[in-house]
Amino acid sequence: MLLNGIRGFCMAMADSVPGVSGGTIAFLLGFYDEFINSLNDLMGKDNARRKQAFFFLFKLGVGWVAGFCLSVLVLSGLFQEHIYEISSVFMGLTFFAVPMVIREEKDSIRGRYGNLVFTVLGIGLVFCISYFNPAGGQGINVSVEHLSMGLMAYVFLTAMVAITAMVLPGISGSTLLLIFGIYVPIIGAVKELLHMNLNYVPILFVFGMGVITGIVGIIKIIKMCLERYRSQTIYAILGLMIGSLYAITKGPTTLDVPMEPLGLQTFSILFFLLGGLILAGLELLKTRLEK
């Protein structure tokens, strides 16, 4: 229970910030395949495997909820007040995760360099989404008095896409929320709900339904890709991670009062290196857990 609670806690800390995904953390901590198989078994017809999967995911979930709530309470204020420092941390998390994934999957990618085309496609996909997204440079208000059918449909579809990224090791779902301009609004909505402000319940319900729909729709595809096309999938994941470095620079433009993108003048090397130290700590934690 403690082991899987810690794993879930670490996944939540990653899922709640743009950068690496919770799937990447599961990958780096060595339980990603068990995580994917459990999600798949939970939707299967074998009762014994479904029960085993439920208890495994429940233990992860307890840690995930604790980590996510703690992260949201801290991040919501920090993101508004120290956007460039936090974005620099996100850059560090993503940058230093790339060689870690390469090392973990060296047997899958070594000698298959023709699959680099999938890396290029991954980079291009994230760049295009970041550059052409309809919410770029706009602050979005998601409280109940500002809701519309168009906004709810937008949040639902974005949640579906984001949860796909959270499950995959690679680009963070939070990075996609950042790209689409609803990261700060959703984090703020969760914080308001934790303070018993019910004005944000409708949009969080819509977001939650999008998450559930995304999981049900994508998990079997992810499992198939990792089993049959692992090399191509890993190369694509690396492309998504590299492309997300550009997406993170756009984070400041999604605030309620949009700010300039992260640039050389506002980039913090110290906070960038802090992102690397966080990943080094996770690597140490993996070693300890394995012992």
UniProtKB/TrEMBL annotation:
Chain ranges passing through the membrane: 6-32, 53-76, 82-101, 113-132, 147-168, 175-194, 200-222, 234-252, 264-285
Record-linked InterPro entries: VCA0040-like
Keyword terms, alphabetized: Membrane, Transmembrane, Transmembrane helix
PANTHER family: INTEGRAL MEMBRANE PROTEIN, POLYPRENYL-PHOSPHATE TRANSPORTER
Protein name: DUF368 domain-containing protein
Native source organism of the sequence: Enterocloster hominis (ex Hitch et al. 2024)
